[in-house]
Write a structure and sequence with these properties.
single chain, five-stranded parallel sheet, six-stranded parallel sheet, 14 helices, Rossmann fold, 359 residues, alpha/beta
Length: 359
Amino acid sequence: MKGAKLDLAFDIDDTLMYCIPYLCERANRELHFDPPITPEEFSSWGISTPRTRAVYAYFNDVSFYENQPPIPGSQELVRDMSKWFNLIANSAVRPEFMTPRAKRIMELYPQIPKENIILGARKDIFTPDIILDDGGHNVLTSKAKYPVLMRRPWNRNISGRLTVNNFDDFRKVCETIRLAYSEDNGRYDCICLVGPSGAGKHDIADELTNRRCTIVQSYTTGPNRKHIQVSEAEFDDMSASGQLFEETYFAGIRYGLAWSTINKAFQSDMTPVIVSDICGAMQLKKSFNPLVVYCQDDEAAMMRQVLRKGESEESTISRLISMKAEMQNEQFCDISVSGLTPSEAADMICREIRDIEAA
């Protein structure tokens, strides 16, 4: 209902408070790991090594829950979000440690009402409007309207879900959702095409070039003739030097939009068109006002298109698995062109742009 506050649920470990980095710091100091253990070694929940098992032992120490540090910026985030949302803390913790966990939450995040601290592993049985969680399994099974994944080393295999890299990204996601319940977006200055793999986004983008639009190419570490291919090392250099406006993982492949290509497109007299995932669309909304267009074809047709790409078996499986998840991202988009031919979709998009400009 427009005007009503939405429910926003926060996970705790490695979402608001440091968990794995804190455990690694303690283990390196107290157990003298050589070489030092790092969070990158925790590549997946449920899969452990002798080194990670030794770190997990700290979960049996009550002092971990009593002294767990907040992630810098998390307290400010919670305070800011309390102005617009009903806040909930939802944390998976064993019964014997629920009391120190609740006390630490109340101490660090007093804006979260005590009665809204929900402890337990069954995160799939309650239905907030938005959740922020670093657990891929929690996001994939969530009943929330808008499940958001905080990207961490142990969830890089998750594709197709709305993902953020930091609190600033999440702020923009929340703002976008909140405004969708309260007001119009205003005049659009570019077009962003999102949707499952095989949905024909690039075909629609090509059609738009016949209607005074220009495609903004992304950089990628994977084989894709529609993007600019670079090596992992080159991508790392672009990221480290601040050349990338945004970057994301999809199906095990890295993608990034460069400031240079974006600026060049906006300096032209044509409307920029960007093919992205939903994460890239949300990132665009931080600096621009894109018309986010959801694209989808018949599910069998999309699967055939994915198989025709000729990518690695791992990448192909990841794209097919993420297809269902990506279909849920339609709710984040301004319009949908599902089921339309590329020409019909381009016509609809251009009508939408013209209608906004005329208004």
